[in-house]
Design brief:
The structure is a homodimer. Chain A contains five helices and five strands; from the N terminus they run ααααββββαβ. By secondary structure, chain A is an alpha+beta fold. In chain A, the strands form two sheets. Chain A has a three-stranded mixed β-sheet with strand order 4-3-5. Chain A starts with a helix and ends with a strand. At the A-B interface, helix 5 and strand 5 of A face helix 5 and strand 5 of B. Strand 5 of chain A pairs antiparallel with strand 5 of chain B, so a sheet runs across the interface. Chain A binds a DNA duplex through helix 2 and helix 4.
Amino acid sequence: MTTNIEEKCAEAGLKMTGQRRVILKVLDEASDHPSVEDVYERAKKLDDSVSIATVYRTLSLLDELDLVIRHEFQEGYSRYEVNWDHHHHLIDLETGEVVEFQNAELERLKVKIAHELGYDLVDHRLELYGKKIKKK
Amino acid sequence: MTTNIEEKCAEAGLKMTGQRRVILKVLDEASDHPSVEDVYERAKKLDDSVSIATVYRTLSLLDELDLVIRHEFQEGYSRYEVNWDHHHHLIDLETGEVVEFQNAELERLKVKIAHELGYDLVDHRLELYGKKIKKK
DNA sequence: GTAGCTGCAAACTCTTTGCAACTCT
DNA sequence: AGAGTTGCAAAGAGTTTGCAGCTAC
């Protein structure tokens, strides 16, 4: 069984090596937002010939192809996720947990703001940083 | 003449050394979003005894005190600006130029989104990435 | 066959830190 | 006087890269 992302790599003309297949599988199955180190650790469990240099190179490639999104949540390193659907993130300042959300009003607003400034919107990021409301 | 930011440093109990005064002056006069290296270069012109280690240490301190905002515009390094007023950024993908903007509707929306997810909003960032609309 | 991919290790960039000397308050 | 601050250089973290060998197509 090939993953959707694997098909897109083939379309882009990438050779499907064993290491890439493993890295794509890890990304495909990740429900979180793994760091390069995370991807490397998970990939090694499936195939310990994978090196961290290949993980870096593969993630850079996937980022260029827009198959993956690179995040910098002010942590000093990058985290990645498969570019399935468009959404944003709320980072829990107490636990580091990342909550995903979408909001139609926001999508409309951001295009409007960019146009008012004289720009065509190409990309954007919204990150909310918050603390869980305590139940009384 | 003391800058506003210098007064706030005094309130926070920081010693006002010559190096700090120069770094604060550089930040106070910056109308852009300088990197650490930028701040260092500008400070050195005013007082070449300033070291880059002090620039790093000072900017970290100012960030903790919320007198300054640290940005990571997906460039692999940090950029800073004085925390005068709350606003967001549109980054021109062709020139790297950074345009600042504010939007009341957005402010309302972000609080609403956080609450719907069960969070109190502490901080947030919105970055738009776009290309200038060409005049015909 | 060959262009592209890999692991390894070295190199690179950005940032932090230990230390002895110095300086605001 | 003394705690805080500094420059320097070394170390640390994350990431990139040159190279020789390997592999998908």
